[in-house]
């Protein structure tokens, strides 16, 4: 994690001056869930990469999370919420403006959910967000529903 001197007044970290505060946020319950997960996995201090990945499902996008121990790329946007550092690549950033990652309990268990105001619809399976008014087909090699 960067030292406090590497952060701006709001506590968010910018990559090449790009702040993600208004782009992607993490709720306190989601941050606690991620911190606990990283602790169980022995990966405290790691960065969570968030990406919007294209799916075969009506051209929608799902969200992928990965744990990274290395530094982000220069073009990445970075933020930190409640001790959890998030990194987003440039392409995914356009789909995540104003989105919030939250933790939600259900009968199947609990997990992270992305609440994204940019989605215009959900795909037919209800799991993926659609951002285009007229979605295209998923590309070959895209993640399936």
Polypeptide structure, described:
With 145 residues, this protein is mainly beta. The chain has helices at residues 28-40, 90-93, and strands spanning 24-26, 47-54, 61-68, 77-81, 84-88, 99-106, 109-115, 121-122, 129-130. It has a single domain, classed as HesB-like domain (Hypothetical Protein Aq_1857, Chain: A, Sandwich). Helix content is 12%, strand content 33%. The strands form three sheets. The protein has a four-stranded mixed sheet. A hairpin with a 2-residue loop joins strand 6 and strand 7. The longest helix is centred in the first third of the chain and has 13 residues, at 28-40. The radius of gyration is 16 Å and the shape is globular. The relative contact order is 0.23. Mean pLDDT is 75; it is low at 1-17 and 134-144.
Topology of this structure?
Elements: E1 24-26, H1 28-40, E2 47-54, E3 61-68, E4 77-81, E5 84-88, H2 90-93, E6 99-106, E7 109-115, E8 121-122, E9 129-130
Parallel strand pairs: 1-6, 2-5
Antiparallel strand pairs: 2-3, 4-5, 6-7, 8-9
Keywords, separated by commas or semicolons:
single chain; 145 residues; mainly beta; Hypothetical Protein Aq_1857, Chain: A; four-stranded mixed sheet; three-stranded mixed sheet; 2 helices; 9 strands; disordered C terminus
CATH fold category name: Hypothetical Protein Aq_1857, Chain: A
**What spatial order of strands do you see in the largest sheet?**
3-2-5-4
Structural class: mainly beta
According to CATH, the homologous superfamily is: HesB-like domain
Query: Count of helices?
Result: 2
Number of strands: 9
Low-confidence spans: 1-17, 134-144
Mean pLDDT: 75
Report the principal-axis shape.
globular
Between the first and last Cα atoms, what is the distance in angstroms? 34 Å
Helix fraction, binned, reads: 10-25%
Helices and strands, in N-to-C order? EHEEEEHEEEE
* Largest sheet features: 4 strands, mixed
Strand content: 25-35%
Question: What would CATH call the architecture?
Answer: Sandwich
């Amino acid at each position: 994690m960067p030292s406090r001197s590497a952060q701006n007044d709001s506590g968010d970290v910018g990559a090449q001056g790009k702040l993600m505060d208004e782009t992607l946020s993490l709720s306190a319950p989601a941050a606690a869930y991620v911190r606990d997960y990283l602790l169980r996995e022995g990966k405290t201090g790691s960065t969570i990469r968030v990406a919007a990945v294209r799916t075969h499902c009506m051209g929608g996008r799902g969200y992928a999370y990965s744990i990274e121990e290395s530094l982000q790329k220069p073009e990445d946007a970075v933020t930190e919420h409640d001790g959890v550092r998030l990194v987003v690549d440039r392409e995914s950033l356009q789909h995540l403006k104003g989105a919030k990652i939250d933790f939600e309990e259900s009968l199947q268990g609990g997990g992270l959910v992305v609440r994204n105001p940019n989605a215009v619809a959900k795909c037919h399976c209800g799991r993926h967000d659609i951002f285009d008014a007229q979605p295209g087909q998923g590309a070959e090699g895209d993640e399936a529903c």
